[in-house]
Amino acid sequence: MRVDSILNQRAKGPGVEGLNARQSQILAAIGANGAASVSDLAAQFSVTTQTIRRDLKLLNERGLLVKGFGGAFAAPGVARYTYTERHSTELGIKQELVAALKPILFDGATIFVGLGTTFHTLHQVVADFPGILIASPNLEVVYNCALHTDATVYVYGGYVRNKDTSILTLAGSAHQSFKFDLAIIGASAIDRDGSVLEFDPIEVELSREAIRQSRKVVLVAHDGKFGHKAPHVVTQMTDVDVLVTNGDPQDYFDRDEVIDGLEVIRV
Q1: Residue 22, exposed/middle/buried by CB under 10 A (0-12, 13-18, 19+)?
Q2: Distance between CA atoms of 114 and 188, rounded to whole angstroms?
Q3: What stretches of the chain show up as alpha helix (H) in DSSP?
Q4: 117-141 b/e with 16+ CB inside 10 Å = b?
Q5: Are 181 and 213 in contact (CB under 8 A)?
Q6: Out of 94-103, 163-172, 211-220, which region has the weakest mean confidence (pLDDT)?
Q7: pTM for the complete prediction?
Q8: Strand 66-68 relative to strand 133-136, pairing
Q9: What domains can be seen in the chain, in order of their start residue?
Q10: Bridge partner list, 198
Q11: How far is 228 from 76, CA to CA, in rounded Å?
Q12: Which of 5, 55, 10 is nearest to 28 (CA)?
């Protein structure tokens, strides 16, 4: 199932019952782009900014988005897609992407693994490397690596995101003792300017911290992630060392220098 199909299904789901057509379309627009300004929405729907603010207030009160100064963005702390939706999306490609990490891993490595269903089969690769330490807020990764490998597993504490297997952990000094050999991260979206993006600001802070503490940053993303938008910048492609993907990076970005020096592993 493709991401755009999920968006269309969710725009019609029970969470939006009782909304008028414009409010449903506002929700879909913010869902697709990650954020939108009041002025842009007013122009798009040919209504006043006061009308848009009332709509955003209602959507915010229902927990469907977060209203901010001059606009709104996707609600933090709530999975952008449900666990089942994300787990079933591009399942075969995700397994191939994770399998392609094998040449990068090595015995005794200390590895940060980010959130996302892409990494749920990582234990199948990690099992071949003794002495690995895995640190992750991803409950599925933690469970599978602890149960099916000999790796030492560190789980970040925090809130479990509703209807998901992700722990939302605030960045802080408790994690400063790690120096990662690899930070393996995913993304909700990757802009054509090279920005690696996420919907949840809490998730962003932990990923940024892990990147700062890592010798090498590995981004794993299938082709459906590129050219899309989300409101929060995790990092830039120029700060990524390895890209694992199933497409051609030359097609993803407006400027060639975004991927200069980038090691690309294609599946």
Answers
A1: middle
A2: 12
A3: 3-10, 21-33, 38-45, 49-61, 83-88, 91-99, 123-126, 139-148, 201-212
A4: bbbbbbbebbeebeebbbbbbbbbb
A5: no
A6: 163-172
A7: 0.71
A8: unpaired
A9: 3-73 (1.10.10.10), 89-266 (3.40.50.1360)
A10: 232
A11: 18
A12: 10
- Could you tell me if residue 205 is left (phi over 0), alpha (psi between -120 and 50 degrees) or otherwise beta? alpha
Going across the sheet that includes 232-236, the strands are 189-190, 195-198, 232-236
Encoding tokens for residue 242?
A: 């390895």
Containing 245, the helix (H) or strand (E) segment is strand 242-245
What does DSSP assign to residue 194?
A: S
Give the type of residue at 101: L
* Residue 236 identity: Q
Q: Which pLDDT value is given to residue 10? A: 46
